[in-house]
Design goal:
Blueprint: H1 2-9, H2 12-16, H3 24-38, H4 47-63, H5 66-80, E1 101-104, E2 107-110, H6 111-114, H7 126-133, E3 155-161, H8 163-168, E4 170-181, E5 197-198, E6 207-212, E7 215-220, E8 229-230, E9 243-254, E10 263-266, E11 282-288, E12 295-297, E13 300-307, H9 309-314, E14 316-321, E15 326-331, E16 340-343, E17 358-364, H10 372-387
Parallel strand pairs: 3-11, 13-17
Antiparallel strand pairs: 1-2, 4-9, 5-8, 6-7, 10-11, 12-13, 14-15, 16-17
Length: about 400
């Protein structure tokens, strides 16, 4: 239930400056504006801008995923609607160490218990209700969220590719500034040569038990802050967190056929988890610059080919550019202006193998100026055409 615990602490709609009923397009637009303003590369050394950049990235990641957004809205509505109220405030503002008690009806509950903080093997309680609501498994199979390592957050960045690189695939270097595993302690948080030890107060469970009247409750262990381990000699470089902010360069392989706005997931390349916990994922949003000749239609490429009227009437073989070199395209005699010719296998590569087609649309190009000889030849052609009985407007307008 760690994501739901964080969702209650943050108003993602407020972070992005959009209404709760904003469309996905409005959310994307708001995110792009804020990300451009807050990106660490534009605000070197500004910790506040960096933190806001992480927040808007997380907000966009949740609110543009229909399933995550549904869960987020349901979770916050459950608390804001009064079914769970904190000290008469109507909505819990945070989770300070698990020591705050919240009220539902007339009974007090610790939020650690609400989210499944019971002793091992206990099962039941509000944790099971939340697990059932969000399809996150039964209570008997749960592992305590406090004793389970906390995964790092997902991050998002952007890159811009040329039309050709997006179609054929490429490798691009990306500079990412984010919390990463400390290189001194390798993410353990302990000084090199030492190791974390099991917390003696909770025996590594991350929880301690207490009684309140006829009920037994468990709460995060204050000695280890619910992690289940103690560090007696912290790493001096990361102060025992196992994480340190640094800038790194990642070579990202962009697959062939990526489209504008597509997100590419890089597993484990996001924010590092605390004390050796798994890292989050990095999502790369791809922007593709338009091409001066080609457009895409799925895996097919479209291009408009300027031709002479004589080439349409008499037929010709014309050289046409592709993403890789050029290809000869045969124009049959008496081809009409605007006809589309198909060249198979010369489009965008498919993930399943092969490639789409190149669709060539012929378009007559009229010269700006003709010399006297060309004008006379055109008049002679016009007379011959009329003499043959051809009338381009014979059935037009009827």
């Amino acid at each position: 239930m760690a994501p739901q615990r964080e969702w209650l602490e943050h108003d993602f709609y407020k972070d992005l400056g959009v209404a709760s009923d904003a469309s996905a397009e409005e959310i994307q637009k708001a995110y792009r504006k804020l990300a451009a303003e807050l990106h660490p590369d534009r605000n070197p050394g500004d910790a506040e801008a960096e933190e806001r950049f992480k927040r808007v990235s997380e907000a966009k990641s949740v609110l543009t995923d229909p399933q995550k957004r549904k869960e987020y809205d349901e979770t916050r509505a459950m608390f804001a609607g009064g079914r769970f109220r904190g000290g008469g405030n109507g909505f819990p503002g945070g989770f300070p160490g698990g020591g705050t008690t919240y009220t539902t009806g007339g009974n007090d509950f610790d939020l650690g218990d609400l989210f499944g903080g019971g002793q091992a093997g206990g099962g039941g309680g509000f944790g099971d209700i939340f697990d059932g609501l969000f399809n996150r498994g039964g209570g008997s199979q749960r592992t305590s969220t406090a004793s389970r390592p906390r995964r790092g957050k997902d991050l998002e960045t952007e890159t811009t590719l040329s039309f050709k690189d997006a179609a054929l695939g490429t490798t691009v270097p990306l500079r990412v500034t984010s919390p990463s595993p400390c290189t001194t302690c390798h993410g353990s948080g302990a000084k090199p040569g030492t190791s974390p030890r099991v917390c003696p107060n909770c025996n590594g469970s991350g929880f301690v038990s207490r009684n309140q009247g006829a009920f037994g409750f468990s709460e995060p262990c204050q000695d280890c802050q619910g992690t289940g381990s103690r560090i007696d000699d912290p790493c001096t470089d990361c102060s025992g967190s196992g994480v340190k902010n640094r800038t790194r360069t990642i070579n990202v392989r962009i697959p062939a056929g990526v489209e504008d706005g597509q997100r590419i997931r890089l597993a484990g390349q996001g924010e590092a988890g605390r004390r050796g916990a798994p890292s989050g994922d990095l999502y790369v949003v791809v922007h593709v610059t338009p091409h001066k000749q080609f457009t895409r239609s799925g895996n097919d490429l479209r291009v408009q080919l300027p031709v002479r009227i004589s080439e349409l009437v008499l037929g010709a073989t014309v050289s046409v550019p592709t993403l890789e070199g050029s290809v000869g395209v045969k124009i049959p005699p008496n081809t009409t202006d605007g006809r589309t010719l198909r060249v198979r296998g010369r489009g965008v590569p498919k993930r399943s193998g092969g490639a789409g087609d190149l669709l060539v649309t012929v378009k007559v190009a009229v010269p700006d100026k003709l010399d006297d000889a060309a004008i006379e030849a055109m008049r002679a052609y016009d007379q011959a055409e009329r003499a043959s009985g051809f009338d381009p407007r014979a059935n037009w307008g009827r």
